[in-house]
Write a structure and sequence with these properties.
The protein is mainly alpha-helical. The protein folds into two domains: 1-58; 60-196, no CATH class. The chain has eight helices and no strands. It has helices spanning 2-14, 27-39, 41-57, 64-87, 89-95, 99-129, 135-161, 176-196. α1 runs antiparallel to α3 and α4 runs antiparallel to α6. The radius of gyration is 19 Å and the shape is flat.
Amino acid sequence: MIYALASIALLGLLVWGHHMYEVGLDSDTRAYFTATTSCIAIPTGIKIFSWLATLLTGFVGCSACTLYCYGFLFLFSFGGFTGLIIANAPLDIPFHDSYFVVGHFHYVLSLGAVYSILASVYHWFIIGTGNKLNESYGKLMFISWFSSSNLIFLPMQYTGCSAYPRRIHDYPIFFIGFRVIELLGIKGLVVSGLLIV
């Protein structure tokens, strides 16, 4: 496991250029960054399978903390697969300034961090305060949070594949269905946040 983490850290230092395919890199440099970015999937996969083996071979039950751990693994893995798509220079160029990148970023970093924090809060809250959080509310909040976050960011993957650009205030009528789904997800996320409080 330590070798997987060390190789992820080392390769992470070498893949920064896959964010710069749009700046006019020559073909050899693009090929290098495509190869190193694809190679980082190997130790990351080892790390994810190690986490899954730990969760599946031990007795972890079905607590709210465990649900957040499974949610993190699913969303982080899905974001990683979308990262492999945009690690390829010919695909990254049309997807670069689209909602596909926004969805990828939120699946990997934002949702991964939030689910990890919520899992640790449910796990460590009793040690810090002496009180246990309500498991039923935790599970209800997980279901609401998980479905709402996917309603927000999964349509972004589809609109990004249709070359829907980010950072614009208006959108074609073709995308209104996706925007309505994302709006429902945002409202659900607000309700989930209120459940946390």
